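For the sake of transparency, this paper describes our internal protein records without simplification. The record that follows is passed on verbatim for readers who wish to inspect the format:
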Amino acid sequence: MELPAELQRFARFERVLGALLVLTPALLIWADDGPDAIRDSVSAYHDVSRPSAFYVPLTAGAMLFFANGVLRNGHSYNLLLGLALSGVILFDHDGKTSIPHTVFAVVFFAGNVAVMAFFSTNKSTPLKCALVGGIVAAIALLCATDWFTLFWVEWVSLAIIALHYILDSVSWSSYRALHADEAPKLAP
């Protein structure tokens, strides 16, 4: 079935936003002092000399969650995840707003793990285990080493979170987001 051009463009747009989310930490490193001075977390880049490198891709990522939550029937959890990512962006990780920032960050990352592990029934079990296992492995490295900082855990998590949008664009994947040739099941 051939989809209308608007839906094909939307499917491509979702994949582009997913890729942008994956590349955000690299953009932050580039916009700052380069790989010789990687900060402790993605949130620590809120005051990077080129603020758009922090705010634009993360806001686009939040919009990815909002759009998916509104347009896709059964994906309303993405509204909460979009709100949580917005809170991560709006509240600074240090100073007076560090508590709300931390709460939003925990909701965002833990919420994504919960969705992947427990609420997503249209993924194969091995894929679920690989996605959640990647995040668990990153957290284990954070706890076991001095060199694997929260920045790397967040990057791994962002990559895994965005992966479902990218995996969906390949025909061999049984993961279900939105295929280029498929109309979304619109929320009522």
Residues 5-167 form one domain. Residues 169-176 have pLDDT under 50 and may be disordered. The first helix runs from residue 5 to 31.
